[in-house]
Fold this sequence. Notes:
The complex is a heterodimer.
Chain A: H1 4-8, H2 15-35, H3 40-65, H4 68-95, H5 109-128, H6 137-158, H7 162-183, H8 189-216
Helix pairs in contact in A: 2-3, 2-6, 2-7, 3-4, 3-7, 4-8, 5-6, 6-7
Chain B: H1 2-10, H2 14-18, H3 25-51, E1 56-58, E2 63-65, H4 67-96, H5 102-122, H6 128-146, H7 152-182, H8 196-201, H9 208-226, H10 234-241, H11 244-273, H12 276-299, H13 303-324, H14 326-358, H15 369-372, H16 374-388, H17 394-408, H18 412-438, H19 454-476, H20 480-492
Helix pairs in contact in B: 1-3, 1-5, 3-4, 3-5, 3-20, 4-5, 4-11, 4-14, 4-19, 4-20, 5-6, 5-11, 6-7, 6-11, 7-9, 7-10, 9-11, 9-12, 10-11, 10-13, 11-13, 11-14, 12-13, 12-18, 13-14, 13-17, 13-18, 14-16, 14-17, 14-19, 16-18, 16-19, 17-19
Amino acid sequence: MVTFAAIESLSASSPEGVLLDIAAVLILLCAFACLGSKLFDRYVIYYGAQSIVLSFAAAVVALHQHDAGLWALAALTFAIKGIGIPYGTRHFLIDRFALKRDVALSTGLSSSLIFGAFLTAFAFLAIRAQTVPNGLVAEAVLPISTAVILLGALCMVVRRHTIAQLIGWLIIENGVFLGAIATVATFPFIVEAGVFLDLVAAVLIMIAFVSGLARQLAEASAPELRQLSE
Amino acid sequence: MIALALIVVLLPLLPALATPFTSRARPLGALAAASGLATLAVAVGLAIDVGGGHRVQALSGFLYLDPLSGFFLVTIAVVVALASVGSAAYLRAEEERGELRPLQVRLYFIFFAIFAAMMLASFETGNLGLLWVLIEASTLASCVLVGLEGKPVSLEAAWKYIIISSFGVTIALVGTLFLYFAASDLSGSPTQHLTWSFLFAHAHGLSAQSLRLGFLLALIGYGTKVGLAPMHTWLPDAHSEAPSPASAMLSAALLNTGMYAIIRFQALTHAQLGTQYAARILLIFGFASVLIGALFIVLRGNYKRLFAYSSVEHMGIIAIALGFGGVLGFYGALLHTLTHAIGKAVLFLTSGDIVLRYRTRLVDEVRGVLSVTPLTGAVLLLAALAVAGSPPFGLFLSEFTIVRAGLARSSIVLVAALLVLLAVVFVALVGAVADMTLGGSPERPTAGPAYAERSGRLLAAAPVLAGLALLLVLGVWIPGGLNQLIMHSIHAIS
């Protein structure tokens, strides 16, 4: 059985460490790309790209750890998050309701990008000094994963369209997964498989809700959802 | 024992298995009611088994039962039983009026079953990762119930619910991750590092910094599900838009599932960091929730929202009790969990009858319930008194215990603040319900009797009367077995 010591000692200068570092930076860039875009199909493309890079990062850790469960997770990530969810969202929501341009922004693109940059800086300042010893790959990857979580949350806040909120939540989830593989490899496989199952179920239910809303409202975006404000 | 533990999770799924064969509410409801009652019987059996301080662990900790799990199993099983019988009556009435299509009836019983099964299962696992998976699964199943009616308003409530609670629960996942990280210095396998009993036994070896962060994130994450302020915003919408028996399940069962997870994390924090750290955070969130609950109950408006804010308030009270700590504090918290669950189930089930009869959810459009339908009116008034904490009902006893716990800890200021807030809630909640039940004749014509047949009326009355009777009994007498179960639960987490 592989213990955490293996992943905790994965140094930043080893080949795996460098690969993980690059993957983490690409994941962060995808989150920024999503934040800076206005077209629905772009959101989905960037999310898919991010997930594929994430599955690559999981494969790198799996190679380092020689862990079959992690290989399976990398494959699942690629198939479900990288292809399945982007395809499903596109097919069932964006193409079906001919959605093009997201107009339900509460903040302009440039200011949300600047705010995103601040959040990234904050994540580095807040996490870097803490918990993780120097020289390990986790030292760089953990702040990045925190930044991805915050950027996903920012997407959910500044975008009020339900699809954009869905993608924002999925980006947060990717950030959590990245943080997990950088610090503790992952949870035991059964638990991780359960997390995946929940994710898929959640996305399916959300797609059903969004299409229900899209059928009844002209724009399925949160500003219209204000009957219940009290 | 292990067989019983599996049966209690599988039993509620029976109605879901019957949905391919029929979409009529009558047979499905009857099956749901029967399986709900059977579930309760099995859960009580399990609780008696573990009530003496006995623990069961199997499948490397994925299956784990101790007195605390037994206590929560019984509490949730009571709610499932009451809500199943209530569903049988409510869905039949909605079907007869043509409000629900066959597909919706099917979906209701399928997701009601999954919802109940996932909640019960979450008390039977000792693995904190699997606990997260099951709690998230129960949230997802309940989302479908909230959006079931398919109207824009209910879809909106369901969307708000799923997006806020998924976000919250993701934070709880990060908290679980930090706990797992905190355990990395311990010996043992990765699976054991997520197993509650192993962590509790080795709590002194957990890394303090990561544990602190883990508890805080878990409290915020699961607190979103519990409805602790300021993460409560989804709760009134979801509770008021769901069909009433589903609201009863949300308010009386689902919130407690989140609280159960928080109690498990708190126990770990206590064992390593002492009581101060967790207590302070719980008190802050607890008071914020009671305050928010009280403020919004004063506003009135929609009576189902009113009861929902009352749930925010009561979850706050439980958090405060956990914050006060000590044997009295935990005793009060657990007893309050049980009494609030029963009281709120009765209140939401009764509100279902009023929705069916008046076709409105506004306090000011409902008048004279007591003269229009004496039984529903009386139950509503009594249940509101009970939930507001009036003697001789069980909630008075549990709130009294919590106040004593605060005094034992000599936090006079906190106790005084709590009492003031409780008084505000009492006046506002009972005032609103008194207007609905006793106030003059209805301003708008009622839509006619809620249930067409006598059997439907009986079916609707049975769970609320049983619940009220239970509350009354708990107000004057705590059975020896229950007392023992609570005492052993406290022992298991301290």
